C-alpha cells in the first residue's frame, strides 16, 4: 500500500540487518585484535574496504582481499562483538562493528542479545499509570510530577542538571549555547537514566498548553533542536550515517518502529518499549526528534524537504517515518491489564 511504501526507506545495507533491540552488550574489546599480529592487519584491511573508495586504495584484487579479511575475522571473537549503548568507548566499538558488517559482502546480521525486558516491563507499569481515566489525572500536572520524581533520584537529578546547564550556557564561539556540548550531555542523560524517569519526563500526558509546553521544553530545544533555518533532512541524514553511533541509533529506530500491515497493532515488532527506547536513542544526534508543537503526536527532526530536488519523495518518506508512524501511537488502557496481549511490554508513546 502507499502507506507502507512511505516507510520503505531503509538503505539497502540496513534491509539485510535484523536489529533485535536497542541495547547492545559488549563481549570483547577491539584492543585484543589490535594487539594481535594476525588480527590487526586484517581489521585494517577491512576498514579500508568500507571507507569510501577503499577498494581503489587496495589496488588489484581488492575484492578478494576484502573477502579474505572478512572470512578470517569471522573466525575470531570479533565476530561476536557487540556494543552497549552509552558505554565509554561506544564509538570505537561501533567502528569495529560496522567494519565487520558494512563490508563488500553486504550484510551480516545486525543483532544484539539483551532484550532489556526489565526496563520495558517497568516502562509498561508507567504506561498503565499514565493511561488512567482522565478524571483521575486532570487535577495534577504529570509533567511537573515527572520533574519532581527526577529531582528525588540522585542520578536523574544530577544528569538532568548537567544537560540543562550545558544547554543554556552561552559559548564564545557558538553564541547562545554550545550545541555539541549540549547534545553530548543529553545523550548521557537518556543513556544512563532509567526509563522510569526519562519516559515520564518526555512522554507525560498533557491536557493543557502549559503542560504540553513544559514537555516540549524537556530537551532544551532552543539549543539542542531548533536553529535559525531548517536544514535539508537528507543532508542531516547523510551526516548521521557518517557517524558510527548515529548510524546505529537510526538503524535501531527503523527496525523497532517499523510499520506493518500484517500485525494487529500496525507495528511489525509490536514492542512499544523497544520503539520508545530507540526513539530516545536519537536524541542528541543530528536527527534529534522532538515535539514540533504542543500536540502529542506531531514529532520529528528539525529539518525540511526544501531543496531536495529529485529526492523530494525520499525526503518526505524520511519525515513520514516520524510524523505518520503507527508505532508511535500509544496503546489503550485495556492493553495494560492483558498480560497475554501481543503488546506485552508496553510503554507510553509519543
UniProtKB/TrEMBL annotation:
Pfam families tied to this protein: GDNF
GDNF/GAS1 domain sequence ranges: 29-105, 143-223, 233-327
Entry membrane topology: Lipid-anchor; GPI-anchor
SUPFAM superfamilies assigned: GDNF receptor-like (SSF110035)
Biological process annotations from GO: cell surface receptor protein tyrosine kinase signaling pathway; nervous system development
Alphabetical list of SMART domains matching this protein: GDNF
Gene Ontology cellular-component terms listed: external side of plasma membrane; receptor complex
GO molecular function, one term: signaling receptor activity
Keywords: Cell membrane, Glycoprotein, GPI-anchor, Lipoprotein, Membrane, Receptor, Signal
Subcellular location: Cell membrane
Main location group: membrane
Family indicated by similarity: Belongs to the GDNFR family.
Protein name: GDNF family receptor alpha 4a
Phylogenetic placement of the source organism: Eukaryota, Metazoa, Chordata, Craniata, Vertebrata
Amino acid at each position: 500500500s502507499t502507506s507502507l511504501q512511505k516507510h520503505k526507506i531503509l538503505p539497502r545495507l540496513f534491509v539485510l540487518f535484523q536489529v533485535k533491540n536497542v541495547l547492545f552488550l559488549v563481549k570483547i574489546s577491539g584492543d585484543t585484535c589490535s594487539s594481535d599480529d594476525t588480527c590487526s592487519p586484517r581489521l585494517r584491511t577491512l576498514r579500508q574496504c568500507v571507507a569510501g573508495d577503499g577498494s581503489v586504495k587496495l589496488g588489484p584484487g581488492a575484492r578478494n582481499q576484502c573477502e579474505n579479511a572478512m572470512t578470517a575475522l569471522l573466525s575470531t571473537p570479533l565476530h561476536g562483538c557487540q556494543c552497549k549503548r552509552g558505554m565509554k568507548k561506544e564509538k570505537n566499538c561501533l567502528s569495529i562493528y560496522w567494519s565487520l558488517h558494512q563490508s563488500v559482502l553486504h550484510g551480516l546480521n545486525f543483532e544484539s542479545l539483551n532484550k532489556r525486558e526489565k526496563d520495558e516491563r517497568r516502562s509498561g507499569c508507567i504506561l498503565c499509570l499514565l493511561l488512567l481515566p482522565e478524571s483521575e489525572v486532570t487535577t495534577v500536572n504529570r509533567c511537573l510530577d515527572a520533574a519532581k520524581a527526577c529531582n528525588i533520584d540522585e542520578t536523574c537529578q544530577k544528569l538532568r542538571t548537567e544537560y540543562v546547564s550545558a544547554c543554556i550556557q552561552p559559548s564564545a564561539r557558538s553564541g547562545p549555547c554550545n550545541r555539541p556540548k549540549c547534545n553530548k550531555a543529553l545523550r548521557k542523560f537518556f543513556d544512563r537514566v532509567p526509563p522510569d524517569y526519562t519516559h515520564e519526563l518526555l512522554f507525560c500526558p498533557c491536557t493543557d498548553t502549559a503542560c504540553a509546553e513544559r514537555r516540549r521544553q524537556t530537551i532544551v530545544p532552543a539549543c539542542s533542536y531548533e536553529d535559525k533555518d531548517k536544514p535539508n533532512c537528507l543532508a542531516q541524514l547523510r551526516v548521521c550515517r557518517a557517524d558510527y553511533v548515529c548510524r546505529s541509533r537510526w538503524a535501531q529506530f527503523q527496525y523497532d518502529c517499523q510499520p506493518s500491515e500484517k500485525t494487529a497493532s500496525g507495528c511489525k515488532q509490536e514492542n512499544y518499549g523497544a520503539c520508545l527506547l530507540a526513539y530516545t536513542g536519537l536524541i542528541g544526534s543530528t536527527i534529534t526528534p522532538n515535539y514540533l508543537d504542543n500536540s502529542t503526536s506531531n514529532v520529528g527532526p528539525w529539518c525540511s524537504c526544501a531543496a531536495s530536488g529529485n529526492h523530494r519523495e525520499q525526503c518526505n518518506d524520511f519525515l513520514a517515518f516520524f510524523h505518520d508512524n503507527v508505532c508511535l501511537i500509544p496503546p489503550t488502557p485495556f492493553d495494560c491489564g492483558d498480560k497475554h496481549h501481543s503488546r506485552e511490554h508496553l510503554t507510553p508513546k509519543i
